[in-house]
Design goal:
The protein is built from eight helices and ten strands. The two termini are about 20 Å apart. The strands form two sheets. The chain has a seven-stranded parallel beta sheet with strand order 1-10-9-6-2-3-5. A three-stranded antiparallel beta sheet has the order 4-8-7, with helices on one face. By secondary structure, the protein is of the alpha/beta class. The protein is about 35% helix and about 20% strand. The structure holds 2-phosphoglycolic acid. The site of 2-phosphoglycolic acid has 7 residues, from helix 2.
Length: about 240
């Protein structure tokens, strides 16, 4: 695992975007595994700038997102589909049919999880998977637990995640479940790029650096990956 500690959120975002841009320059047909949340917003802004400057072409890129609330309509302004359209897809030349997010409004979430995993397999999984991390160490919505699921599945959200994300649901209760790639779906990516910014992520980063793998802190499973880069800002690294 390579760890890079940069000054702040802006530097982290630029460095993360550069790795994604290089991946697409090396392979214009790359499959990018993408993430939502406050952490990657800056990366998407830099990617949009690079696209506007003619430095990156998304026309042959395919994307697969990590997770989606369930139940939620894709058009809901708190859905991860909506987030991706707003922050990236509508701002670059990616083909809508090449973007994939689990369907949070699927009538049968278990069938949707199976469909999504089969889609990932058919694409050969991500060439590069971008990840944030939860304050509790979750990756995607693989929450701390006695056991983790390997493949895409429906999961209840923990109290920590509900507390962290309910700030976005100002006018209503937030969904209490989500569809998420599993730990194996994530670890099958050829390369992983995890970004962490701010003091609230320090505990999770510290657990990762301790080097012990535990289902109670899912980020530690990244220690098993042969090509994982972690970019933190000073606050996440030092606490
Ligand atoms: P955040 O979420 O980027 O909004 O902090 C990360 C996560 O929960 O995985």
């Amino acid at each position: 695992m390579k760890i890079q500690v940069l000054k702040d959120y802006g530097e982290m975002s630029r460095a993360g975007a550069e790795i994604i841009a290089e991946t697409v320059r090396d392979n214009p047909r790359a499959v990018l595994g993408l993430a939502t949340g406050a952490t990657p917003e800056g990366v998407y802004d830099v990617l949009v700038e690079k696209y506007a400057a003619g430095e990156i072409d998304f026309s042959e890129v395919t994307t697969v997102n990590l997770d989606e609330y369930c139940p939620i309509e894709p058009s809901d302004d708190q859905s991860y589909r909506y987030f991706m359209e707003k922050h990236l897809f509508s701002r670059v030349n990616i083909r809508p049919e090449n973007t994939n997010v689990p369907m949070g409004n699927a009538a049968d979430p278990a069938a949707e999880a199976k469909r999504y995993e089969e889609l990932l397999a058919s694409l050969g999984y991500a060439d590069l998977q971008l990840l944030g991390v939860g304050q509790n160490g979750h990756i995607g919505f693989n929450e701390p637990a006695a056991a983790l699921f390997a493949e895409t599945h429906l999961t209840p959200l923990t109290e920590s995640t509900l507390a962290a994300n309910s700030i976005y649901f100002t006018d209503r209760a937030m969904p209490t479940e989500a569809l998420t790639m599993g730990m194996a779906s994530i670890l099958r990516a050829k390369r992983i790029l995890l970004l962490a910014s701010g003091k609230s992520k320090h505990a999770a980063i510290a657990r990762l650096l301790e080097g012990e793998i535990s289902t109670e802190c899912p980020i530690t499973f990244l220690l098993l990956h042969p090509n994982c880069t972690v970019i933190c800002d000073r606050a996440a690294y030092e606490g």
